[in-house]
Amino acid sequence: MSRRFLSALFSLCLAWQMAATLAFAAAPPREPMLRIETGMHTAMVKAISIDAAGHWMATASEDKTVRVWDLAAKVEGSSDPAPVRILRPHIGPGNEGKLFAVAISPDGGTIACGGWTGWDWQKKGSVYFYSRATGKVVKRLDGFPNVIKALRYSPDGRRIAVALGAGKGVYQLRVSDWKLAGADRAYGNDCYGLEFDAAGRLATASWDGFVRLYDDRMQLLAKEKAPNGELPYSIAFTADGGKLAVGCDDSRKVAVLSGSDLTPLYTAPGGADSGSLFSVAWSADGTTLYAAGSHRSGDKYLLRRWEEGGKGEFSDLPIADGNVMQLASLPGGALAYAAAGPEIGVTEPGKAPSFHRAPGIVDHRGGNLLVSADGSSIGFGYGPGAKPGAVFALGDRSLRLGGDDDGLYGALLETPELRVTGWRNGTTPLLNGLPLRMEPHEASRSLALGHDRKLFLLGTDWNLRCFDRLGKERWHRAAPAIVWQVNVSANGKVAVAALGDGTIRWYRMSDGKELLAFFPHADKKRWVLWTPSGYYDASVGGEELAGWHLNSDTAQGADFFPVSRFRLVFCRPDVINRLLAKWDDAEAGKGTGEETLLSLLPPVVSITSPQDKGVVEQGEVTVDFTVRSPSGEAVTGVKVLVNGRPVSFKWQGTGLPLNQGERRKVTFALPAGESEVAVIAENRHAASEPATISVSRTAQEPEPEVISLKPRLFILSIGIGGYPDPELALDFAAKDAKDFASLMQLQKGGLYGDVSVKLLTDAAANRQAVLDGLKWLSGEARERDTAIVFLSGHGVTDAGGAYYFLPVDGKPGKLGESAVVFSEIRKALMSLPGKAVLFVDTCHAGDVMGGKKGGSEVNAVVNDLSSAENGVVVFASSTGRQYSIEDPAWGNGAFTKALVEGISGKADYTGKGRITVASLDLWLSERVQELTGGKQTPTTAKPRTVPDFPLAVKKQAP
């Protein structure tokens, strides 16, 4: 029987198996799952792939995402490659959706990914293929008999190799028709290493100890034991295919084999001093050999570099804080890497990384989690082994850096009655010498005893476990990440755990039910707090740190919606407050309505043309887009934004209504230069996430009168300190408004052609005057102009959560009829065709609500205004319920003093004479904390659709 016939028969059987699997498979989970989103991976980055031109880089992580990076573009204000897309396959609880492999086609057009994908709900492995340009699933191949361990495209892009776990072998498929081109199932363990040479031959490395070489028809040419270890992990051909480097998971040596028959040629000199060198790569010209892995010096993991094709002297370069999982060469000699940290980066030959992206999560390893007696306050550190340097109080949502940790205590680890041993990073913990029940290979990481000496907790790689004093398990809860730290409140009601995904979670001690999750971002500013039911509270900017993943049908992949899309219904600080009273999620949620996340889903917009980074020559551009409505709700409106601000547009053909998946076209004016274009669709519940592209218009010769035309600046500056009630009086609010207005008037003739100011202070700042000022602003500002509202005074939140600015004639007991609701301010700022900026300093201490201190909560207001659909840049004097501080020594409030300093030139970090939104944010953040000793933390929120822009120019001394 011929090989060709056997191959065809096997291909037919595999195709039938895959088709049968699809026909009888269960569907992926449909319930929404909350996920952390920081703009970077939040778990180990297992794989990295780069296209042939070195333009696009794809990274795959156990956080269940693929991230696409544009190596030719830079993040605004930095030299880092720009993140352009996040790909989300179907996921589920536990391992389902973890990604171990990624491959980008040589032309950069298609990205394949796989891992523990489809295994839990289909019992077969699957590979997802995405369009890099659109992010849409173009193909899903399933039916593989185990999880996906590695993927690799052939150099011509016509074939893709798929390596599997558990000895299930390696498959090659033709991309043209997705049919089997060949397979070898005679493997004895996982296969992690795949590499094609320029001629299309495939080499593999497997934990069965063998390196294999196949021809372009997947016929075995050679099979040899790795000479440097029992667990071959990665392999790399030189560009000419003459040599093959092998790295092993259990070896400090790197072997170089013949690329033609796998004959051992030599071992690179000098093994690793510690760990192993399991990741290997060659430079593009084949003269330099690289290796990395668990080899480290101190806390830094090292990249080893050999000259002379791996025969010369070596040097080590620190590049990461965790195991280096994969290396990839770039044209021109640079090297990209993926690390367990999670981290990714690019390094030039012999130089420190030119690009290094660390996670935005807090590393809780080796820390000390402190808890108050009632469990409502915690202390934690922002780095591995860090002492508690931050205190978060659930009651007032205050995050204090360097705060007083009095009243907080660490975990109780031992008593005479309860002695747990072998728990620190061990798989066989003992209670008073007797073993505790664990799953095979489950490692214990943390311990806390109850203060009543009756119960204790073990945090492990996979679970939080509660045992009684006899060692009987009371309950266990699957954890979404390693439980690095655990503690128990002194009153015995709640357990608090710090996890490997950066979250800190509260569990009810009686039954282990999860009650709350808190995610503090590593920037030490932003945070989000949520219940299992989805109700949340967040700092300024914190709403974008979490979102809901929703699996759609198998052909479409998945959707992701930031929690901000559900703000109107699920941003409920009051629900969290009620939960704290009884530690009961169900009780706290009573009376909140019957709305579900699935019924409130916003539309999803995709731009089909022009392509991102496109160029147009005309003054108008036509954008082609489609809209889906996952909830089935009608699409009621469409907005087009240019550089974050709404523009008028014309429908080309049919406009609204929009049916499911229909294509529409809109035409609108585009300014010269590069612009960020966004399309947003709305239904009756929410606005979509913006679909964005960058489009450049080639500059045309302007009319003579336009050449010298500068934008205008309009300022509504309001400051109220002279309230009739002396309890509300503020010393410097009116002066703050005057000083800001006077300073900005000096910008006339500089950045702005003209500056118009409406100043309202004290007695002049009554409710009607404030409303009239907002109308004036809306009526005057035009598309090229900038409008600024400056507010200093008292802000008040009513019982229903509505936020008000208190004018001089405002009555805290009659807010609806006497104060200015923030929706009026939002409406005025949203309507502006040009840039809109709000400076808000309304969190002053005072008896605003009849004895209730801290009656204002500005976070939700700022998050609302700065969302993409509203498009307002907001500078807030403080965060949450912090007070804004005044001091006679400054002659202003701390916020305005720092603001005046920054605009006067202190925020000109580049020395170019321009104070931008980003530079002013940095100055305010550092200066206000310096002035107030860390008691006041200003925050800035800029819609991501709004590029950084200058607010002022530094005035030169006469």
TrEMBL record:
Region Disordered: which residues?
Answer: 931-958
Q: Which residues form the Peptidase C14 caspase domain?
A: 716-941
Is Ribosomal protein among this UniProt entry's keywords? no
The stretch of residues making up the signal peptide is 1-25
Q: What is this protein called?
A: Peptidase C14 caspase domain-containing protein
Q: Name one GO biological process term.
A: proteolysis
Q: What is the lineage of its organism?
A: Bacteria, Pseudomonadati, Thermodesulfobacteriota, Desulfuromonadia, Geobacterales
Q: Where are the transmembrane segments?
A: none
**The keyword Repeat is annotated on this UniProt entry:** yes
The protein's matches in Gene3D superfamilies, at most eight in alphabetical order, are given as:
3.40.50.1460, Immunoglobulins, YVTN repeat-like/Quinoprotein amine dehydrogenase
Matching Pfam families: Peptidase_C14, WD40
- Keywords from the named record: Repeat, Signal, WD repeat
Q: Where are the WD repeats?
A: 38-71
